[in-house]
Amino acid sequence: MFYVYLLQNNLTKEIYIGSTADLKRRIAEHNKGGKKFTTRKEGIWEVIYTEVYKSSADAKLRESKLKHHGSGKHELLKRLKHSLGT
User: Fold this and answer.
1) pLDDT of residue 71
2) pLDDT tens for residues 32-80?
């Protein structure tokens, strides 16, 4: 299975969208610390939303649409308004 996920930083309230075949490992990587966007931030990245796909190609396509097409991301954020911290 392949996952598209949305994380939110508990301190900065920033969001991050990604995809992976191993969600637990990927979340741990985001919270480990390092040089990437999510690992150089203070706070903890929490899973707010996930979608599950059988196909890697479908997951990558959905991730791309959420990251690069404002309307898809905007609609998702509207649906999650009570789940996202402000």
Assistant:
1) 84
2) 876 677 767 688 999 999 999 999 999 999 999 998 877 888 889 888 9
Distance between CA atoms of residues 12 and 77, nearest Å: 16
The pLDDT of 18-29, averaged and rounded, is 94
DSSP assignment letter at 77: H
How many residues comprise the chain? 86
3-state SS, one letter per residue, for 14-61: CEEEEEECCHHHHHHHHHHCCCCCCCCCCCCEEEEEEEEECCHHHHHH
For residue 78, give the amino acid letter: K
The 8-class DSSP code of residue 86 comes to -
Q: Which residue has the tokens 């509207």?
A: 78
Half-sphere exposure of 71 (CA within 13 A, CB side): 0
According to the model, what pLDDT value does residue 72 have?
85
